[in-house]
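Complex record, two chains
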Amino acid sequence: MKTGEDELNLRCLFEKPYIIKMDTQTNILQVDSLNVFYGKLQAVNNVSFHVSRGEIFGLLGPNGAGKTSTLSAVEGLIRQQSGTVTVAGYDTLHKPLHARAAMGVQLQSTSFQAELNVAEILKLYASIYGLDLSTEQLQNLLKEINLADAANKKFGQLSGGQQQRVALAITTIHDPKLVLLDEPTSGLDPQSRRQLWTRIEAIREKGNGVVLTTHSMEEAESVCDRISIIDHGRVIATGTPQELIDKHRNDPEVIAVSRRGRITLEDVFIALTGTAVRA
Amino acid sequence: MEMEISIPKTSAVMAALLRADFTTIWRNRRSVIMVLLVPVIIVFSWRGLVPITGGAFVLSNAITLGLIAIGLMGYTNSIARDRDKGVFQRLRVSPLPLWTIMASRLIVQLTLILMLTLVVFISGYNFDQISMPLSKYALTFLSAIIGGAVYLSLGQAIVGRIQNPETVNSTSRLIYLAFIIVGTIGESGLIKNESLKEGIKWTPYGTVNDILQASLDTSKWSNHTSVALLLTIGYTAVFATLGIKWFKWSTR
């Protein structure tokens, strides 16, 4: 298994590796006809999309649209009522451990064991992903995320940006084929946000896939290769940001909400999902 | 193009979780000391009872109260807090079998139970000069684990039924207090009503105390004790089933 640029040791912590052959056309994530219910409420309605290798895919939608529910089904946190999710060729229901080993997940609100310090948290999750971090490798990892001085701090003592860096380091510690980020820039200052995007683009450069949700249309427009807009649990538009802008440029609803003299992704998004504020 | 996906060994995952959970307990050692201190105080303050009731009576009550504190206060609150903070959700998206998360927590609690029993034995020897053959110590360790399982499973049921960590905390404290009252009043002879006295004997406090006492003094093992043992296992099965059925990994 390739372990990324920092060359983490893999010693004898793995079961016999499963090798799958994928052609270049195989999607790193394939979601087909996904349906998720909470009781009688349908949170995800027949959602389908795919993510290719080396692609940053944005899942956009207003609050309560079904973004997190869709991601949760992919992550295996909730069980879909119907539909299939395949990660790196593994069905998440039939081969959940393989699917989870192939992905790195940053949840919307991340927390770790309150009594553990940053170094211990990194070592714990490295071990969970089958990596045996040496002291030197741990130091390098901490330096890489600008937290060399915070190794002995508890996670709760870190600033929002520092917490986010730790969370992303854990998300990508095993060089996952697919990275899922649920509102990763929420609450970050511009510097931390810029650094995060640099890291996400580095993941893409390696040929891994990224799925993210965000409320920032500017970020989605500048970073995502393709996006899906989801509302009331349904995918209502999919394409590159420019394709979506071009497709809806002349819609009267888009022109009506446009405020800057040029049509932006945010204009298209608001026109498609409505101007009403969601709870 | 080849893609290789490797699943970490369960033993390696378990070792990592255990290391983290034992570190957590070590960092919370003050509360662990408090849990261990209550039984020690009981052994010390009940010294005068030893010639009257026997050492087994004092030690079994001390161990039982300690087991209740471990199951209801320590385990339950740590699960409620970590669930509320999303610690379990973060673990659940990792490639580990879900059972390892709880197994690691339970192993830590079982270790605490063994520590508690050892501390009570040492206190009993130091304060009251209570000593027994090795086989009785071993049998009591086993009974403490069986008895501890009742309170751990009761804690699991509480944390399964109640989502809010503050409510879990207050509920478990209330039940802890109820058990202390049931135990101390039931054993003190203050209750004159025979059916109430008999009822207390069949509560989780009464049954666990009974099997511990009979393990410490095997001459007292009777049919009543055998029924108490079966009932203890039954309580564990019921509470554990409900606890697992009700439990949700996230409060959101």
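Note: Chain B has a mean pLDDT of 91.
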